[in-house]
Design brief:
The protein is of the alpha/beta class. It has three domains: about 5-15 and about 295-420, no CATH class; about 80-225 and about 235-260, no CATH class; about 425-520, Arc Repressor Mutant, subunit A, CATH 1.10.10.10. It contains 26 helices and eleven strands. The chain has helices at about 5-10, 25-30, 35-40, 55-65, 65-70, 100-120, 125-140, 150-165, 195-200, 205-220, 230-235, 240-255, 270-275, 295-310, 310-320, 320-325, 330-340, 355-360, 370-390, 405-425, 430-435, 445-450, 455-470, 490-495, 500-505, 515-520; strands at about 45-50, 75-80, 190, 205, 225-230, 260-270, 290, 440-445, 475, 480-485, 495-500. The longest helix has 23 residues, at about 405-425. InterPro entries: Sll1717-like.
Length: about 525
């Protein structure tokens, strides 16, 4: 390679932004039709689960970017939560609904309100849409195009409160003792099936009105996808509110899952799903139209290669064609081997660079996510650029990165994972993580209890919470439970490899071979 070209390439190199919403144009460059995308695009799945950073929002953004193609198939996408900025549902934290039942009513009526606006916007006019518009207008819940989602939600929230908590409404309301409908309410959308007399008077249940909306779409030949992302942000200040809101969302989904033309598309983190169902959730048995986002080694390699090939300087430096390189796995592997050293740590029993990268970026679930890979690779570019700024030699041969740069880049990812993810999302667990600073990497309930100054039972409970968020990897050796801290967290916490004294005192692998985790890093 001509002297200076590699340095110029490294200076301009970027692996993109780890936040999907902030790299819409870049996502088009990296786009690949995965199984998850194909199933969602065909309309086969409604619920997309995945760990934080697994690419849920990327699928959401890509779906928006394919809106025209979907519309050609008579699919209308409707944002049911703000894709950017303040979440529409955040204001509910100030005055949360009193019950899960009230929340179910809010979800259903909220969906109806934004459906009504969309049907009117797209000119869907038939007897069923006319009935929908009339009922929503009577209730003051047919928004204009300029009405924000937050305003729609506030109106829906106030309407539902009048029916379910009339005494708490400002000024007070009373229920009619015969009809059980609040006096003074002009809307005729109710939250249980009306009796025949009220039905004749024009009252209709929210479920029946959703069926009317579904019929309006069926007659017109359209389907609506109600897109719900960023639910982790919408309810992040109250675990109880999050639990009630999301359980209610899935119950609303269950109640109306027979509707063929109205399809909520819910993008949800797996840890949040686990949290809201840990006490049991019978509705989970009805969630069959779902998919989990899982990234294996081949998928991670493909992601890295696609992001490399989106850099014009890389194509020029290696004199390669993007499409031809991506056309076969053999071409991709050959390109990867040109860019990266074969191993970070050289030795017969050492892992390949890809496996080293995956293990060093994995959390306690033993899985790595695209976001963490992207953060690490951008840190790697920063490290290599600093070396060039110090007039150090360019990486050997065709490599863009020196072996030693990989280890130097790890602290940046480690700090990001601990401070921007764990501390930011689980502040209640921060004191327990901080207490492990400068300690060993493997613990049991006794050692943790001593460090946290709690009894062993409470120590085990806290340890399981840290396991559930991916900070600990739980290991079981002949019935002895230990908690191992993954590599990705170690740099920031200044941890030293090894087992705490309690493990050896209790006879748990008294001969400490934990140094082998570093020596032979392929489990």
């Amino acid at each position: 390679m001509q002297t200076g070209l590699k340095a110029a390439c490294i200076r301009s190199l970027s692996f993109g932004n780890q936040i999907a919403e902030e790299e819409r144009e870049g996502l088009k460059e990296y786009f690949v039709r995965t199984q998850a995308w194909d199933r969602m695009f065909r309309g086969d799945v409604d619920i997309i689960y995945g760990p934080k950073g697994s690419g849920k929002s990327a699928l959401y953004v890509l779906a928006q970017d394919h809106a025209d193609e979907l519309f050609d198939r008579n699919v209308i996408q409707v944002a049911a939560e703000n894709p950017r900025g303040a979440p529409a549902f955040r204001d509910l934290q100030m005055h949360p609904p009193a019950s899960e039942r009230e929340f179910i009513g809010i979800w259903k009526l909220y969906f109806l309100s934004i459906l009504g606006r969309s049907l009117r916007e797209y000119g869907i006019n038939n007897k069923h849409s006319a009935e929908l518009f009339q009922k929503l207008e009577e209730a003051g819940l047919l928004p204009t195009q300029k009405t924000t989602l937050g305003t729609i939600l506030t109106s829906v929230r106030n309407y539902v409160a009048k029916f379910m908590n009339p005494s708490e409404v400002e000024g007070g309301l009373a229920l009619d003792p015969v009809t059980l409908i609040p006096t003074g309410v002009t809307g005729k959308i109710v939250f249980q099936d009306p009796d025949m007399e009220n039905q004749k008077a024009g009252y209709i249940s929210v479920d029946e009105l959703l069926s009317v909306a579904d019929l309006a779409l069926e007659v017109s030949g359209y389907t609506v996808w109600l897109m719900l992302d960023r639910l982790d942000v919408a309810f992040d200040e109250s675990s109880e509110l999050e639990r009630n809101a999301l359980r209610a969302l899935f119950r609303a989904y269950r109640d109306n899952r027979t509707q063929d033309r109205i399809k909520p598309k819910i993008f949800l983190r797996t840890d949040i799903w686990k949290r809201i169902t840990e006490e049991g959730f019978r509705e989970a048995t009805h969630m069959s139209r779902d998919i989990n986002l899982i990234w294996d080694g081949a998928s991670i390699k493909n992601l890295i290669i696609r992001r490399l090939l989106s850099n014009a300087q890389v194509l020029q430096l290696y004199n390669i064609d993007k499409d031809r390189t991506l056309s076969t796995s053999a071409n991709q592997n050959a390109f990867f081997d040109m860019v990266f050293p074969e191993q970070v740590e050289v030795g017969e029993n050492q892992s390949t660079t890809l496996n080293w990268l995956i293990k060093r970026t994995s959390d306690g679930t033993k899985r790595t996510q695209p976001r963490d890979i992207i953060v690490f690779l951008n840190k790697l570019v920063e490290v290599q650029n600093r070396r060039l700024e110090r007039a150090e030699p360019e990486p050997a041969g065709t490599w863009l990165f020196d072996r030693s740069s990989f280890k130097e880049a790890m602290p940046g990812l480690s700090e990001y994972k601990v401070t921007r993810q764990l501390f930011a999302e689980y502040p209640q667990l921060r004191p327990y993580i901080d207490a492990l600073r400068e300690q060993k990497t493997e613990h049991n309930a006794d050692s943790l209890a001593r460090l946290w100054e709690v009894d062993t039972e409470e120590g085990a409970t806290i340890a399981k919470q840290l396991r559930d968020i991916g900070f600990f990897e739980e290991r079981n050796s002949k019935g002895d439970i230990t908690y191992w801290i993954p590599f990705v967290y170690r740099s920031y916490l200044a941890l030293s490899q090894g087992k705490m004294q309690e493990l050896q005192a209790n006879g748990v692998l008294a001969n400490d071979f934990s140094f082998l985790d570093d020596l032979f890093d392929d489990d």
